[in-house]
Structures are given as structure tokens and as C-alpha cells.
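Hi support team,

I submitted a single chain yesterday and got back a structure, but I'm not sure I'm reading the C-alpha cell output correctly. Could someone confirm the output below corresponds to the sequence I sent? I've pasted both exactly as they appear in my results page.

Thanks,
R.
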Amino acid sequence: MTPHPANVRRRIRQLRDYLILSSDWISYAIIDDITDVFQPLIQNIEDEVDEIDDKILEFHSSTDKRLKGEKPSKNDDSNTFVDSSDMLRRVGDCRKRVMSLYRLLGNKADVIKGFAKRCNERWEVAPRSEIGLYLGDIQDHIITMTSNLGHYEKYV
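Hi R., thanks for writing in. Yes, this is the structure output for that exact sequence:
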């Protein structure tokens, strides 16, 4: 069971008075809905990377205090080992999620690009409407998500 057909049907009900909803448009809408599923996952990774960054900065600031001879606060000394092992686990888990999504999104932009190209070149079997432009937007969205994942992969 997947939520995509139900999401597309809901979108059809909302837009049927404003657009000509052909089978080409429905195909586009399914691809778009599948693509949109990745965005919250990537947002969660971004949030996790930001949290990891904050914790690392916090950890380094407490280490700097100890090196300068300042008295550490309660939290600084007691959890250093636990924090560092927890941090390594978090970095590893985040990296696995980044790589998994990277693999899932890897070739999708090229597939959509090829399909959009055929739509725009007016091939016999390709859709004849503005679907090629819509597919170009999906391709841009996939490229943006992939580049974000590439950034997070280098960071974590």
C-alpha cells in the first residue's frame, strides 16, 4: 500500500476546475508525489546535522575551557566519554541515512531529464502538453535534494 494514488486523487479533486487533467498530468502528479516524499527525510537529516554541529561546538568549547585551566561546569566532565561515543553513533547513523537517500535519488534526475526531453521534443509516444515543463521542475527539485545530501555527506 502506498499513499501516492490517494494523494493524486485528492489533488485531482482540488484542481479539476482549473486544469485539464489528462492521463499525462496524472502520471506527472504521481512522479511529483513520489519525489515530495523525500523532502521531509532530507529536512530531518539537515536538522540532525545542525544538532551534531552544535554538540561538537559545545564539546570543543568545554575542552578549550579545560585546556585554559578554567573550572569545568557540572556537565563538562561527567559526560565527556558518553557524549563522544553517542556523537560517533549519531554521526554514523546520520551518514547511513544520507548515503541511503543519496543512492535512492542518485539516477532519478537523469531519468526525469530524459523523459522531459522526449516530452519537449514532441516524440510520437510522449505527452503533448506542458508536462515536459513540469517534469523539468521535478528534475530541478531532485537535483537540489541530491546536492543537499552531497553537502551533508561531506559534513558528517
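A quick pointer for reading it: Helices lie at 4-15, 23-36, 38-67, 74-78, 80-105, 108-120, 131-155. Let us know if anything else looks off.

Best,
Support desk
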